Amino acid sequence: xxxxxxxxxxxxxxxxVGRRDLIKRSAALGLISVPxxxxxxxxxxxxxxxxxxxxxxxxxxxxxxxGVNDTAQMEFVLFDGGFGKEYAEDAVKIYEKNFPxxxxxFSATQKIQSTLQPRFNQGTPPDLIDNSGAxxxxxxxxVGKDQLADLTPxxxxxxxxxxxxxxxxxxxxxIVEMGQFDGEKVWIMYYAYTVxxxxxxxxxxxxxxxxxxxxWDQMLAVCEKAKKKGMAGWTYxxxxxxxxxxxxxxxxxxxxxxxxxxxxxxxxxNAWKHxxxxxxxxxxxxxxxxxxxxxxxxxxxxxxxxxxxxxxKALFIPNGSWVENESANVIPKDFDLAxxxxxxxxxxxKLPFGTIWASGGEPFxxxxxxxxxxxxxxxxxxxxxxxxxxxxxxxxxxxxxxxxGTDGITLTPGLKSGVAALDKAGQNVVNPRLQDWYxxxxxxxIGVSGLGEMMAGRLTPAEAIKKIQGFADEAAKDTSIKHxxxx
Length: 487
Hints:
- By secondary structure, the chain is an alpha/beta fold.
- Helices cover about 40% and strands about 10% of the residues.
- Strands 1, 2, 3, 4, 5, 6, 7, 8, 9 and 10 form a 10-stranded mixed β-sheet that branches.
- Strand 1, helix 3 and strand 2 form a beta-alpha-beta unit.
- Helix 10 packs across helix 11.
- The longest helix is centred in the last third of the chain and has 17 residues.
- The protein is globular, with a radius of gyration of 22 Å.
- The protein starts with 18 loop residues before the first helix and ends in a 10-residue tail after the last helix.
- The relative contact order is 0.19.
């Protein structure tokens, strides 16, 4: 995975609702949280000095709306992950071209926390950080201790491409809200944009003379057809079964409505006992009971399951859009990679077929005590231009937060399919926040101890739901963790 949110072990009413309003309900507030005691301690002091060394503000002009000091150094630290660093280096060159007296101090590392923790504590952090990876710093702590700059000036600045359009007006729905916590201020800019769903080979589906199934009866029929031809219907990351929600959660939202997902995120009592949850759990369990899951799947990690799927041993796999880049070395050239929104139960579902999970990833932050906060924001303004977005998309096979950036470039099969899936979804894009707000609950408890056990046949759906509701109730009562709610 190029991004590094909590999910990937390797990198580490009746009134009509508008698309932005719908996603706002689904996207507001929380961020991925991977706390460590050393970082909590380090940030508790609120940082040291460093403010005295702030770069003087430059003159604000049409070309320099943020008032960047055109002689002040800017430092940019990137997470060196699956997206690589070339896209960022290209954006740095544009910054240096626009401010010729400046040389950007750019570096890339996988050890974000251990590298930057001491500098936050000393009050001397860099100006822009891609806070990602296994060593991602705890966003809640950073915001709670006033360690981050509010990115509203960036969002209200004119975009690089059209001075009559603010940066915020060029972004995909939900991106701004994802960077907020309990108010209007925006602390994080998620740069990548991930499409989650059911991934498959269109060639394999065509060989069965089938189309992607829209109802569960159709799904079972396709899996039976595949089984007769020696192909399993499904596989998944058995060792990391929290991949299952990438298709299961939006299915629950499709069947029961967005409010069911919101109740689950809010840790509301009995949220997991909703009929939509029961129906979807029973549907997935049926895949196991009928033998439609690739044998041995519970013992496979994400790479092994993706490889078996790429080799044609299984038809469907729940995953995110990073899978195209991550599995590029094993996916055959004629595979014709495609993604679909999850199959529903039947015509009684609350939302239409096409309802999909998509959200921001790769969180960029500008530290409050950085010497050149205007420079850090300007670098982000450059990255959120059409040209930089296209550059990112063409190089790493992923969309960005910029709402566009695909015209004129040749899209890879998976990326093209992802764009089509988003177009089909329209306003029906959901964004469950459980994996961001409560990492341990989502991964270890719901994922491994709940869904993993059920899909391995060691728990019935009813037992899994009871167990997971218990885990959620425990988290709701845990005063040691910060709780979030959809607004």
